[in-house]
Amino acid sequence: MCKLHASLSHCASVGQRDGLVRTKRQDSDIQKKIDHEIRMRDGACKLLAACSQKDQALEASKSLQTCSTRIMAYMTELQRMKEAQIMQKVTRRSSDAGAMDDRHPCKGKVAISDLRIPLMWKDTEYFKNKGELHRCAVFCLVQLGGEIFDTDMVIVDRTLTDICFDNTIVFSEANPGFEMRVELYSCCSEDDYSAGSTPRKLASKLSSSLGRSAGKKFRSAMEPGPCSPVGNGGATPLLLPVPSVPGPKYHLLAHTTMSLSHIQDSFRTHDLTISGNEECSYWLPLYGSMCCRFAAQPHCMTRQMMSGCLKVKQLGGEPQSWTKVFGVLKGTSLFCYHRQEDVEANVEPAFTIAINKETRIRASEKDPQSKVQNICISNQYGGEEVTHTLTSDSREDTHRWMEAFWQHFYDMSQWKQCCDDLMKIELPSPRKPTPVTPKQGSLYHEMVIESSDELSTVSDILARRMQELELRSQLGTSPNWIPASPHRCPQLSLLSSDASLTSDSDSHCSTSPCSHRHAWPEPSSHFPVLSSSPSRLRPRTFSLDAKLSTLRGRGFRGGGTFQCSCQPPTSSLLAPLPVSSRSPRSQRSTQTTLSCSSSTSSNSSSNSEGRLSPESSEGAPFSRPSPARRSLRNLRARLDPRNWLQSQV
Amino acid sequence: MSNFIPGQPLVAVVQRIEIKKLRQGDNLILGFSIGGGIDQDPGQNPFSDDKADKGIYVTRITPGGPAETADLKMGDKIMQVNGYDMTMMTHDQARKRLTKKNEDVVRLLVTRKSLEEAVKNSMGGYQRQ
């Protein structure tokens, strides 16, 4: 088989007739591939038109893009081959010889894996916990020669720091002079894509009245817009004009071209050329580079290039003693086995002669007796030159071996660094059904709190939760009272009692809205300064005020009891507080407790770190909560960067 | 307090405040709360002028506590504590620096908006650049 391989590579260039036949067969191959892709594309179009789920639509659109790209590539390939045929016909008559000089390097396997593209979000984005999460669906297309592979699709939002593709893509037959093109496509995945999609979303959008950004997104989704690849000059993407189907459309976001010089048996960073700008809906803030593992295995390193029987002259022995071996040329060595069967049996070779870039091989003069040339292989082993002399049974064999060596050297010169050592390529395992990934939540939510010894027991946590629920049911106004965001609650509860030192609800209502109008309240003498950010407050409504006054009447001090969830649930806190008999004092004391946030999220309880519970004891107004709870709250507070930590000193 | 550029020298009008810690059993307390730090989100600081200011601010004064007695005000930005700079500190580092067990007294340098106003007013028509 190996001898055949060595000879076939020469026959191919010589036999023009064979070449023509092969091209015709390749022609029909490509045509078949094109037909296959066209069918796939039609199917994807139909699926896209029919599906209603967003995920399905994204996947279908991705298949559509991939098919279109492949069709384009195959057509280009077909074109190129037809041109080559014509050229061949022309040059065939002019030169018949010279085919032997046409040495082709061996092909090889090229693999790219562990693609990682870092993102560069502004730090304000990380901390934003309001507003919709801007999501994009991204995937990569990798093209080499006529093959195009796609990676899996990944949904990206601002909680991700890198886009990671786990796929390994292997191209089996690549020339050393290859050019591999990697393209990143992205598509905005949150808005309606067309007028015909889910009415519910559309209705909600209309009701909230299209703002500037929403309108921009709509516009860019509806029409090609300024972000289309054509408008960017420079890079011509592989994308065909896709048949216009309503649905998510992917746009080219970044691309790069890599070749042999980029190959290395480790992770490297490559630059990306980014198309599109911030105005486009599919924009993602890319850092501008891409990390991946890019390796190659030329066939000369993995396959037996030549094998046959040889005789090796013993070094240092008698001049005429030859050892019969079965030689196999593979990779950077010539393995010499005692017998041919040893090769399959995986027995260790008798000895190994290195064949690498520093090796010198020459044919010596004809041996006077056998009329066969010897082959001398010289290597430098640590400063000393060692020469092995080989010969074979016939002149043709020797010739073939020399040919094989020349070819091998040529391959190594073409594949350069790939022939230094065998690079590892992990074959992609047979397609497993993609595991259902849990919805990618915020990076911070996924952090597991593995606290030290001071973590309260589960029963403790449960007890606290039960109290929260109890309180909420007691008050009966919880849905309105506890706003969604932990930030709002402190202000609301603060306002209920401290904004004015009178317990009059009317003046209360009048003064507090005033404070909202200023972005940052000045420490005026009218009322104590609000220690929270009022700019994000919900505007007060009459119903809310009504509830506040009723609550105050009931003596719960508007959320004062909410402190229980954060503080050790002592019974004194649960009891209703005495009403206004000690008004200024109690007002102020409730002010301190009320700045503790609500019970809804344990995260927000971090704001209460070190907060006092003045009701519990008058004598010790500065008591601190127990160390256990404090450290638990510390931990949670620390882990959630959305809270603005406040510490008592 | 304004024009705070990290890494650049800062000019501010400051007030010295000396707080004697109050002993409460095992703890020494100062009677105020701090917020901010280089590891915190500066956008949520209600007291800072510049929303990129990651300094340490006084967010609450416990009534009747040592800090109130010493004339510390809510909204003050703490520049130094016992000689140590506080403008580039994480929240936890700042807290630790204030609550050292072997220190009975903390001497703070704080700055507040009203100070700058006072200086400007007292200087009459002179425009400080």
Describe the structure.
The complex is a heterodimer of chains A (649) and B (129). Chain A is an alpha+beta fold. Chain A contains 18 helices and 18 strands. Chain A has helices at 2-14, 16-50, 54-94, 123-127, 199-207, 212-222, 299-302, 341-345, 395-415, 458-475, 478-481, 488-498, 505-517, 542-554, 563-566, 571-574, 583-594, 627-639, and strands spanning 108-118, 136-144, 147-150, 154-156, 162-174, 180-188, 251-258, 267-271, 273-274, 289-298, 304-313, 322-330, 333-337, 351-354, 360-366, 373-381, 384-391, 646-648. Chain A has a 7-stranded antiparallel β-sheet. In chain A, strands 2, 3, 4, 6, 7 and 9 form a 6-stranded antiparallel β-sheet that branches. Chain A has a 4-stranded antiparallel β-sheet with strand order 5-1-10-8. The termini of chain A are far apart. The relative contact order of chain A is 0.08. Residues 1-19, 95-100, 192-210, 219-242, 433-455, 476-544 and 555-623 of chain A have low confidence and may be disordered. With 129 residues, chain B is of the alpha+beta class. The longest helix of chain B has 10 residues, at 113-122. Chain B has 3 helices and 8 strands. In chain B, strands 1, 4, 5, 6, 7 and 8 form a 6-stranded antiparallel β-sheet that branches. The radius of gyration of chain B is 15 Å and the shape is globular. Classes of the chains: A alpha+beta (649), B alpha+beta (129). The A-B interface holds A 124, 127, 487, 520-521, 523, 529-534, 588, 592, 595, 610, 612, 620-624, 638, 641-649 and B 22, 24, 27, 29-37, 39-41, 43-47, 49, 59-60, 62-65, 73-75, 91-92, 94-95, 98-99, 114. Chain A: Residues 12-87 form the REM-1 domain. Chain A: Residues 523-536, 573-629 have a biased composition (Low complexity). Chain A: Residues 303-410 form the PH domain. Chain A: Residues 506-536, 573-649 are annotated as: Disordered. Chain A: One of its GO terms (biological process) is signal transduction.
